[in-house]
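Following up on my earlier message about zinc ion. Here are the inputs again, as you asked, copied directly from the submission form:
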Amino acid sequence: MTAEPPGQDRDLPLDAHLHTNLSPDSDVPIDVYAELAVDRGIAELAITDHVDFAPGLQAYRYSSFEDRERTVREAAERWVDRGVAIRFGCELTYGSRYEDDVRDHLRRHRYDFTIGSVHDEPDSVYAPQNVAAWCSGRPLSEIVKPYFDEVTAAARSGLFDTIGHLDYVKRYVYPNVTPAQLSEAPELYEPILRALVESGTALEVNTSGLRQPPAETYPAEPVVARFRAMGGRAVTTGSDAHRAEALAFGLEAGYRVASNAGFRSLAFRRGAERLHVPLPERFQT
Ligand SMILES: [Zn+2]
Ligand SMILES: [Zn+2]
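Thanks, got it. Here's what our run produced:
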């Protein structure tokens, strides 16, 4: 880590998870991120606004593919000569019961880069009004099972370039279950990690957890190291910013997690081009 305050990480090649005002839970215009990225030397941004398929979820029919694509591609043209590359991605909420809808969407629409994530639904066991009762008296394996089973199915589907914040359940169950309790049960992660390896899907090191109560990345370093040991060869990293000040937040820490786990580059896709973006020199140790 450098002396830079959190949120001010600079001179980094890629923030691969960002939300703009094309998502229902963000009001940041794309140009605000682009300007900040130029100021801070963040070379490349993936705009990954939410795409939801279940009517109860916030982004269901929120912005059309055409609006999102036009807005991001036009911004990319405005900024390409000013030192920041902008890619058109998305974060699709995955649910096994609507996997066919996700597949159909991805068949019909072309993105540079796709993140598949499992999110809480309004009436789920992890909803604020249900979570304490759900966590009470159950073993940890059962508490996380509904979430982890869906993440495993998302990884197995092979539909996505990467799986976003794969233990975001850490946030939902906090403080009924702490990150330390989860870290003592690495075996709970193995089905997910195996599915990622077998489907060739990347694992995301999502740094939003560093600014939320769990105070560690989603997932934490031991899980990333386990993924590597099991044969995982592709990680991505993103701040998951929904606000301007969160651009690149904790990204250095995320790069460090990847580096400590044995990765020397970040997996990425720019449309037809699959590539590995080398971690900066200072992370190569
Ligand atoms: Zn998400
Ligand atoms: Zn996100």
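One observation from looking it over: The longest strand covers residues 85-93. Hope that helps, and feel free to reply on this thread.
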